[in-house]
Specification:
Elements (H helix, E strand, L loop, with lengths): L4 E6 L5 H10 L3 E6 L4 H6 L3 E7 L5 E2 L2 E2 L13 E4 L8 E3 L5 H11 L8 H16 L3 E5 L4 H14 L3 E7 L7 H12 L3 E6 L1 H8 L5 H21 L4 E5 L4 H6 L24 E3 L7 H10 L4 H4 L19 H20 L8 E5 L4 E6 L2 E14 L7 E2 L4 H14 L3 E6 L13
Parallel strand pairs: 1-2, 1-3, 3-6, 6-7, 8-9, 8-11, 9-10, 11-12, 15-17
Antiparallel strand pairs: 4-5, 13-15, 14-15, 15-16
Helix pairs in contact: 4-5, 4-10, 5-10, 12-13
Length: 430
């Protein structure tokens, strides 16, 4: 690694990522490690310039206070403590450091260079991937989401046609999404891309299934089976590329921090695939992943695309999925995204989408009574997805979206706007 590094040792603080992100914002790379990392393990990390002990009121494990190995103080790196009193630290703080204090520690005491940027990161990862993979092949499930798209672009830069991408269209994609993946990766970037249209297979399995969890299990399980089938047709593939990012690792827990949730980025692939993992984005936060995509030359509409649930539109076509309502979700979602982009809301609102419930309401079309579906619009802002507020969209924008949906989307006679924050609501409906 070319970048200098500041290591944060997790002693139970809930603010580790805040400190890490602030240091990276200063242009210096930072990683979070468990409190009981050994001095030998720290020595093995590249270019460590300083160590921060980040404690707090949660500084206990199994009811016992956590401590670091005292030999860490002998490594020759400056050590700063946040609410973890020890006489061996150069600096002790009772609260999170402000920017000035961080700057003084990182640059004046640690003598770190501000060389953390996407150009250097990509160069490092290209070198590491080439060293790991050699002349062998890497298989990647390319959903078209931000993480998998950026991984694909980075691996293409590193190993070119040794990367084999598999894009499975399960029939629950947004409008023109699969076409966009094929256009960018196969036609523009010359990727070795296998496209699998499994629409009929998925929709057949989902017929008459109304329970949201059951839908998720069917979609996730069937995706694994399709992907596995394609993988078994290939020869000489020893590696599996994954879009694991840093929050996935942090949320899955360290030895000190309580686990938020486990992440299985390819949906729990069967053990008999026996691939070695290639995860070049595992050091990046989400905004850094997007910056990496921009540096790699991916189109903006792919890099800054909306968060999208794994089951796709399957959990926005509420209840048992029908082709009629699925198409209504797809078309109304496309209209919403188009109008938000025109109004400049695509860069302001964290997530926005449409859903279509599995019931109808009475209306009037062409001077005759009709009984058709409604479309619900949702637009929310959040920092961590644990809570969310509603974006109060200008009425004229809402009116234009409503008019277009009622005119252009078949089998719809009503448009509603969801004003429910999280909590008590959740971001998605299912």
């Amino acid at each position: 690694m070319k970048q200098d590094m500041i290591v944060i040792l997790d002693l139970g603080s809930t603010e580790n990522t805040v400190v890490a992100r602030e240091i990276r914002r200063l242009g210096v790379y930072s990683e979070i490690h468990p409190h009981d990392i050994t001095p030998e393990e720290l020595k093995a990390l590249d270019n460590v310039k300083g160590i921060i002990l980040n404690g707090g009121e949660n500084r206990v494990v199994d009811g016992k206070p956590v401590e670091v190995d005292s030999n860490i103080y002998e490594l020759g790196c400056p050590v700063m403590s946040i609410d973890h009193p020890t006489a061996k630290c150069e600096q002790q703080l009772s609260q999170l450091p402000d920017e000035k204090t961080l700057r003084q520690f990182v640059f004046d005491q640690c003598k770190a260079e501000p060389n953390w940027n996407m150009k250097n990161f990509i160069e490092d990862q290209v070198e590491l991937v080439r060293r790991q993979v050699g002349d062998r092949k890497v298989l990647l499930a390319l959903s078209g989401g931000v993480d998998s798209s950026v991984v694909a672009a980075l691996l293409l830069k590193a190993i070119g046609r040794q990367l084999v991408c598999v894009h499975v269209n399960h029939g629950l994609m947004r409008k023109n999404e699969s076409e966009s993946v094929v256009e960018v990766f196969r036609n523009q970037l010359n990727a070795n891309l296998i496209y699998v249209d499994a629409t009929e297979r998925f929709l057949g399995k989902l017929e008459n299934v109304a329970d949201p969890e059951e839908k998720r299990k069917i979609i996730g399980g069937e995706f694994i089976r399709v992907f596995e089938e394609e993988a078994r047709k290939l020869e000489g593939v020893d590696f599996l590329g994954q879009g694991t990012i840093y929050p996935d690792i942090i949320e899955s827990g360290t030895k000190t921090a309580k686990m938020v949730k486990s992440h299985h980025n390819v949906g729990g692939l069967p053990e008999d695939l026996k691939f070695e993992l290639v995860e070049p984005l595992k050091q990046l936060f989400k905004d850094e992943v997007r910056a990496c995509g921009v540096e790699l030359g991916l189109p903006a509409n792919m890099v800054y695309r909306q968060p999208f649930p794994g089951p796709g539109l399957g959990v926005r076509c509420l209840g048992a999925i029908t082709r009629e309502r699925l198409e209504a979700v797809r078309e109304s979602d496309a209209i919403l995204r188009e109008e938000f982009e025109k109004a400049g809301l695509d860069k302001k609102v964290w997530q926005y989408f449409t859903v279509v419930p599995d019931f109808k309401s009475v209306g009037v079309k062409n001077n005759a009574r009709c009984f058709e579906y409604m479309v619900i619009l949702r637009a929310i802002n959040t920092i961590d997805a644990m809570s969310a507020t509603i974006e109060l969209v200008d009425y004229q924008v809402l009116q234009k979206i409503t008019d277009r949906i009622l005119k252009e989307v078949e089998h719809v006679n009503r448009v509603c706007f969801d004003l429910s924050p999280k909590p008590p609501a959740t971001i998605e409906f299912e």
